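Researcher: Next entry in the queue.
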Amino acid sequence: MRTTPVQPLCRSLLLLAGLVSSQVPANETNTLPSLPQWQVLEYEQKAFFITAKSRVEIVAAGDNSEHWRLTANSSVASNSEDVTLDLTGAEGKALYRSRLSKGKEQRLKTYDFLQTHIERVRRDPPPKTKLPPSEWPVSSRKDIAYPPEAADKVVTDAYALLELAGRFQASDAEAAEVIVNTEFNFYQVRMTRSNDEHDIEVSYEVEGTRAAVTGKRNTSAVALEVAPVGDQPDKYDFSLLGLNGDITILFDADTGLPLQLSGTAPRIGDAEINLKRVTLRKSVP
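Model: Structure for this entry, 285 residues:
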C-alpha cells in the first residue's frame, strides 16, 4: 500500500468534497447542521490477543434531511452488537434506537424516545428459530421515565457523541452538555475543550483511495466528563466504543476527524482506540 503525506491528502480530499467548514452548535444558528464530513468511521483496539472493532456510520434518514440515521457495529471476541439510532440532525436528540446483541445469548431491544418517557421492548428468540429478530416474541415491555435533569437537555445515545463532540470542537462554545441513555440508566456528559495540543502517530486508510494516512498529526482534545443522573436501577453501564467513564477524543486539527479515543476499558485499564479507516462523504445535504 502506498503511503501518502497526510496533510495534503486529507485536505485535498475534503476540499474536493466541499467538507472543510466551520460548524457551530445547532442552537447558535437557524440552519440545519450539515452531516459530518465523514460517513463511516472504523476503529480498532488490540489487547491480550483480543481485537475489538467498531464501525459507525451516519446518513440522512431517507428523504427527511432533518433526521439522521446512525448505525453502529461493535465486536469483541465472540460478542457483538448492532445498533440503529434515529436522531434529529439539529440537536442529536434520539428518536428511536434498536440494539441487537449476539453472543452466548441473543436479544433485540428497541427504544422509542417519546415526549414523556422511553418505551423499551425486549425480544428473545425461540429455540432454533429462523425468524428475523423483529419477529421474535416480546419478552418484556417497560416505560422508562426521564430524570428531572433531562428536562431541558438533549437525550441521546453514546454513539452520537462522536458527532456531537466534533460539532462542539468546531464551535466557539466553552462547554456543552447532553444526557445519554443506556439501558435503564441516564448519564450527564459534559464536553469541554482542552487548550493543549497533542501530536499523535496515526495510521489509517481512506476508503476509495489507494493511500494510507500515516505519520504525526496535530490534534485538539475534547474531554467528556460522565456522571450518573437520577435513579440508577442498573450497575454503571456507560460505554463508548468499549471505553467507560471519562473519555478524551482527539480531533485532527486540520480535517476535524476523530483520530483517537482514550479512557478506561474493562479488565484492561487505560486504553486507546485509534481510527483505522474512514469513508468520506461524497456530498453533504
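Model: Confidence is low (pLDDT under 50) at residues 1-30.
Researcher: Noted, moving on.
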